[in-house]
Amino acid sequence: MGCSIRALWILNQHRHVVFSRRFPTVEKKWKNARSKHGDGICYSLPSDAQLIQSFVERKEREGSFRGLATREEYSQPGSDSWVDDPITRSIISLQIPKPDESGELYLLWPIVFHIRGPFHILVLPFVEPHHLATYENLCWRADCGGPVANGHNSLSSLLLDLPSITGAFCVAQTLGDLIVGEALEPEININPSSTMGGLLDSITGGIGIASITARAKPVAAPVAAAATAIAAGVTGAAPAGILGSTTTKGILKASDKEALLGFITSAMPFGTPLDLNPITINAIKANGFSAQDIPPQDQKQPAWKPYLFKSKQKLVFALHEVVTAALYDRDDVADVITLKGQLLCRADLEGLPDVNVQLSCPSSGEIDGVTFHPCAQALDHGPDKQTITFSPPLGNFVLAKYMATPAFRPPLQGFYQLSMVSDDEGAFLFRMKLLEGYKGPIVMEQCSLSIPFHRRTIAALDGAPSMGTVSNTDHSIEWKILAGHRSTISKSMEVTYSGTVKFAPRAVDTNQRDTVGFSDDDEIDCGNENKMDKADMNLVAAKWEDPFCWEAYSYAKASVKLVGGTMSGVSIDTKTVAIYPTAKVPCEVSSQIISGEYIFWNSLGRYPHVAPA
Question: Which residue numbers delimit the MHD domain (predicted)?
Fold first, then answer.
């Protein structure tokens, strides 16, 4: 069974519905299924006002918009938290008043809940009535959750029988990327010295290198042109219409809504998602089809490849990993390090071939939580390998995403210490080790540290690092250890930086708000739900640009980039890449590691952390 969407809603931080779409075809299918199930009255979808009311009531009942996810003393039978399963933070239910004014409620489930920027996205997929009845029973069972969660009557086992949930998550994520302006083709780093042929043409055409675009274009050029239109924010391109500056304030203009409706109509006609790639959708709408685009008679052309490639063939893979870290330099607090990665691909191949590729992982590392592009299937899976076969779409795409156990220590280790000599002067020390435990061909191309002081103004800075350059703004110190490609590090080394920083005397700002009370014109980042909860309670807090940087809290944030390998040890051997039907196609593999939130907490000051259970 595929995926069908009954309705979707987009809410902003002010609890207003800024966009909604209902699909009558799917709703008629739901009513027919409900009638055959013999459940009596089938209630219609709620109005926008009813949905908002029920959504706010759920927040008050569950404690936050996402919910408790665990059963507490104040959890009510019939609520999501009563089910006692963490998945209820992302798959929620709403209790809607019945239209007969009896005061009774009916359950609307399953609703996929996704937060993106200042928007809350709710997607209601079609499920069979007996699945809804099963969930209603779970909401009232006294023994739900806990050990029962591993049984056949648990929420997890129910969701495994609902592939429409996965489709609804894809819809919610795509809409979120569109409305915040991040529905762009992923970038793949290519070695410019290589002879790339048609591949280089299509890539450079997408980024605007005019001197190369004069060469012959492959048939896939409309897709590259669509990517260019989206990146440039061209008016009239369906996804680009969503890239307005007002979206950061939780507002969708009429043109934004029209563009969003156009994308939904093309990507999921009559409520059935077909191809959610906005670049492909925009290419089809802008260019249509010609006689050259007729697919072969003996092969079924997938929706994600509307145009066939015709030019010099090339296959490129890129492993991109992002490391996040909270480093404390304390014996009583463990460092927290997480690693996630993506396998990006570009397959400029003629016809409709299948490609096999094998991911290798060393014994010191482990990949987990792997998800794949709809064009891919996972075959052999073991502790040290993962084989993927796929029928590639056009352009750059994310073939797989994964979480990983690091095979190496973080590329930047050490400590940061700040001691306040007086109220307006502090002495600091950095001692950092770069690439400890790493070997070639991994090279560090970029490394810098930023030390913010959001609530103080820097008056003077003294001290010189052992390597790199230092500058400062009114509220931060910037230490660039490595600035770019001209200066790289390929072996382990240690760098230090000590000095003093003097601050301007504290000034009392009578206009600054000490409490967090927001009006309808204020911006709130709904990506951090805790901010909204604190806003409701009028808590005293620091400026919202960095809520952790209060009083004694201080930290340094690192930015690093490495090329030539991965931190997980995951790799691709080009000899294991196979194409069917057999074709001799050059294959390139690149890899890089970049930093996400990479924090060194002041080891002489206070620090936030999560205590282990």
Answer: 312-563
